[in-house]
Specification:
two-stranded antiparallel sheet, alpha+beta, elongated, about 15% helix
């Protein structure tokens, strides 16, 4: 135990993950990004059935019980792709922050 030294860690206030540096985490649960992860209408967490099509293509689908209460499941699947491409920003017109 003599070889150990204390370190400083930073906790994200949204996802509760710990990090060594305070400014490199891009949290998908940040309400400023107005996406599914912090929306009142979201039916649950993203739970994907990941099916491999070939090469680097995957089919991401979620169950109906986890879809958005304001959109069809197909739009939820599309929203996930949009969020990943845009740094977790979505700007959904139906967005309402979780209470």
């Amino acid at each position: 135990m003599q070889d150990l030294k204390p370190i400083q860690m930073y906790e994200c206030q949204h996802c509760k993950k710990l990090f060594k540096t305070p400014d490199k985490h891009n949290c998908r649960r940040d309400p400023d990004k107005t996406n599914c992860y912090s929306c009142e209408h979201w039916g649950g967490q993203f739970s994907f059935d990941k099916s491999h099509w070939g090469d680097d293509e995957y089919d991401y689908t979620c169950g109906a019980e986890e879809a958005c209460k304001k959109h069809e499941t197909s739009l939820v699947e599309e929203a996930f792709g949009i969020m990943r491409e845009n740094g977790w920003h979505l700007n959904c017109p139906e967005y309402e922050p979780k209470a």
